[in-house]
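Regression report. Comparing outputs from two consecutive submissions.

Submission 1:
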Amino acid sequence: MKKISLSILAIAGLLFFACAKPEIPSDPNDNQTEQPGDNPGDNPGDNPGEQPGDNPGEQPGDNPGGTDQPGSGDNPTVYDIFLCIGQSNMAGRGEMIDSDRDSINGVWLLKPDGSIEKATNPLNKYSSVRKDLSMQQISPAFGFCTYMHEKTEKPILLVVNAKGGTGIGNWVPDSSSDTLYNAALRRTRQALAYGELKGIIWHQGESNASTWSSYMASLKTMVEAFRKDLGKENLPFVAGEIHHYHSNSMYFNKMIQAIAENIPNTAWVSAYGLTLNSDMLHHDRESQITLGERYGEAMYRLAYDNSAPAPAVQPELYVEPRKITLESASGSEATATLVTNQSDISVSIPEDAASWLSVKVGSDKITFTASSEAQSGESRTAVVRFSAQKEYVDITVTQKAASKYSIGQVWNNQGVIFWINPENPDNFKVISAKAEKRAWGPKDKINGVNSSSISGLEAADKVRAADDYSTASYAQQFCDKLGEGWYIPNRDEGDALFLAYDSETYFAKDKSGTATKDVPDKCTDKEKAARTAFDNALTSVEGGVKLNTAEWSSTGDSIWLCYETSAGLGYYYRYGSPGCSTGSKSSTARWARCVKEIK
């Protein structure tokens, strides 16, 4: 009799529970099992340090333990359900401590078979798409669920289905990589047997920071799909900023702050003051918990009480770019864009940089100025910190080393420097002081090099290797007489030479510049002085010849440039007026003058 009574009670309990289940939106995939390949790997280059294919999914024996079903013991029969999805920060990378493994009061976790258990960290351990179990640590879901239970005094059921390294494209249901969306949808539908879905929290964006301009459209597609497929037209959704230290965070976070203007019944949470692990990619344990509480505060207003106080405005401080380069000269400047909601920003310059660097903070930009000239051959670097309350940004400022060389300087008694590499002051080019008037080569017997694709030593080597080198390469033969490394200059080098010779700005493409584009007689005093100084440097070398021996004629002399045109004829460049000729000649004698690059 006793056994019969217990059986009747058990049957009654089961009937009660079945009746209490809410209606679940239909899932066309309910009868489908998850197939191999349903869960794609990371996007290439996403989140360095997390490798694709790190054992996604739950492994046999990963998560032993019992199941706590609704209606048994102290367990409730109806839960408030939340879906927690995103990439590695939502999966959790904050290092756990021993107490984190204790069960979380008032919170349950959905298991892979659709049953539930008392929640313990790591909360992403049952994700159907996760990476290796050992990588799952403290996530924002921890701070979120504890906040929600304490605030609502209701039992909370979490569906956590995050995967590190994934981009928004992996989560959009109409893309070619939609399995992450499908997996989250399937697991959420399983959870609906236990209560009502109250909202979604989403932390993702590090993988998409550089493509932020197209992000909102993809996010809207995903949110609308969840709302439609789960039968909740106005389902609350909360997204988070990425860490303010992250590259492009200024642009990404400003975009995510506009979520409510683009998607109804949504909110965003700030990453203000959060700190990172040593990998400088993931929030540490304390910050994960803080971030989760911010998610909870925002979700409570959306899902329970929209009259609740709005979260306090958090400081925002962004500076882009994070690396600044100053020229070697004293007074050289560079600027960075500043976006902030703070009026009081402190600047910290290292003590050893205070003598050469000054910084001015404006309303929307920061100006960096070199207050002294850099020494020859030695660049200078400083890390400048900008702070507003607990927010800070570090900017690396480098002043280039002063070059030991200068434009117009005689080099090694062979030529004159006309170009210095702006990225490396020890890399420069010289034009030969010696020159000789000679024809390019007999007409129709020029070696084929195609100067549009190669130039310099490579082209010179091809000319030397040609069968008709000795009878058809008169200009190159002159260069070879000067010694190893000399070659015919190309048209770009002709433009650089003209700048060095003339001292005024000149644009080769449209032939605009100073009065010299007409006739040399219209040269300014500055141009005349520069030309005279350059010619004097050339003639100071034994055997050196002026660049423009025609003095102030209307056209001036010209030198050969490039190894070949499409017609097999060499270009020439006139130094009376700027620019290479629109035609080309081979038989007329012009100045053969050569270039050498010094590295």
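Submission 2:
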Amino acid sequence: MFSRLFTIGDAGDAVPPPGAQTPHRSGEPHWPAIISNCTPGQRRLAQLICLVMIIGTIGLLPFARVPWQHMPFFFPMYQTAVIISCLLTAYLMYGHFKATQTVAVLHLSAGYLYTAGVLAMQCLSQKGAFLENTRLLGGAQTSIWLWFFWHFGPALSVFWFAWSESRQPGLPLAPGHPQIRNTAIALLGATLATAMLVFVFHEQLPVLDVEGDYSRITTTGVAPGLQLLLLGALLLLWRASRFRNVLHVWLGILLVALVCDNTITMMAGSRLTLGWHAGRMGALMGLSVLTLVYLQNIKKSYLTSVAVADQLALANAQLDLEALKSTQYAKKLLQADQRKDEFLAMLAHELRNPLAPITAGLAIVRMQNDPVLLVRTLDMLNRQVSQMVILIDDLLDVARVSGGKLELKKDLVDLKDIVSVAIETSQPHLQKRRHALAVQMTDEALALQADPTRIAQVIANLLNNAAKYTPDGGRIQLSLRREHGEVVISVEDNGIGLAPKNLEDVFVMFNQADSSANRAHGGLGIGLTLVRQLVEMHGGAVQAASAGLGRGSTFTVRLPLASKPVLPAVKRLVDTSAASLKRLRILVVDDHADVADTLSTILTLKGHVTEVAYNGLAALDTAAEFRPDVAFLDIGMPGMDGYATARAVRKIAGLEAVHLIALTGWGSKADRARSAAAGFDHHLTKPTPLDALDVLLAKIAAPPLVQLEPQ
């Protein structure tokens, strides 16, 4: 119940009162600033506590004079508890003052010290408190007078605090002001004056107590005066902030407790009664309010400090780790930069290799008319261009995978069909090096939920890699098997092998550039990187193994099998025979004149009627007059780009149904989506294989035939 009142609250609940200042001096402990606005919940709880004390006091009044059993241990234990509470509160409040420099808080701390001192003197003057039937100091009236003095101490200090707060809330101590010294002198003087009065001149003081019974002057003069002082302090405290301030609320509880203590003690009429004991417990609770408050906040501050220390330790550890990672990262960056430079040199080398025979072949074509030589030269040109296309495609695929832009077109497929395509793709490499390929496949269907083109690319890359790093006339084995819900694809060769330290490096981007010996085998060193990326995109894994240099190597791919078998499906085939195709009117638009002219020439040789335009505006004029069935449009044209041209062509009367085909070097998923939004029917990337063009134009020119065949 009390924890809700004693908790300082979140920063959002604690709003300093107008004019409050809470400076913090460097090097000093940061004590909790408890002079903050009180939440409605805290205010209601304080009202409930005060109401319980008042109702409890009223309920005990009829029983206040009931005699209570004499307990010699009660008084010293009670006094000791109150003294410790007051001393601890004074110390904690002084720490609060050091943090906030609030003058009124300093006065409160002094008031609690005065109360503790008077209580200590009362212990020494109480008959039987330490020695039976003996008082250590003072006379018969000393103890009762000290009881009133320690009640006056908190009342006066709170009165002074409330008066200061009502004038200037949160008034800070002026720099260089001797307030601490003055307060200490006043505290010492008040304590000594009280001791002198009650110990030296106690016989001259009015009689307040006769054998434990309170005199008339006590019940009609001193006690009512104390009550008026307590009520006045309570009223002044209310006027200072209407109890919107948390500290004011706690002090209000203290004053209400002392009022209840004074009331029931005077109604009891004497000591050793129920009312007298109840008053002692009420006073103890009232004086302990701030002690509990500060201890609660110290606990919170300690836990917060421990948490902050743990966070700092963790942050330091993370900084050390980050420093280590930064060092390692810098080393990796240096290595990556070196690999990049070596790769660029390798890329230039690999691109120049086919360019040299292409240049020479073109010269041969210009100088010779021998049909046999021309055919052989054209075959060579086709091979070299194909090699360049493979290099560029591998680069683009790696970039797309690394950038997360490669889209898999998964379908339920039989792996054995994919293997056939991969072997056909790699056959030229195997035949060139005169390798013997052995294939081991299970008879059962191996169903995969995969992109068949990409899995064929994985297997073909592994076969090409084996062919490249196996001496001429070598042996390569491709095997497929089912194992624990997975399909295992292995490509084993008897080639140059791998050192144990390089088993993982072979999958690192551009790793081939690390070894000058490997350069003799050609390639960019990205094939195996692409293999790993594509396999992992399918939820699988790839691993390299080798018995050592010169002892061959094995690459193993594991892919998850599909949960359902491959079923025969209806596929749409297109009859691409020349007799079945009609001649198409085709418009070719490209700002690169060589690209546009060569494509137009090829299409013309295939029997189509073509027109060429070299920019978007010219394309619109040509399209309006030519009325094409199909239009190939480049995207990246200056001025009016391919997107704008496509939208404009669609608006020409009679061309709403023209087949628009984007033919561009941009082939990402976003590029395809944008071309579709612009009205394109198809999206092809340069350079597009001629057979792919034939299939697409055949679909446009001829109706499809339906044939049932297995996937």
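Expected: both submissions complete independently.
Actual: both completed, but the second showed a warning that disappeared on reload.
Relevant detail on submission 2: Confidence is low (pLDDT under 50) at residues 1-33, 513-520, 569-580, 705-711.
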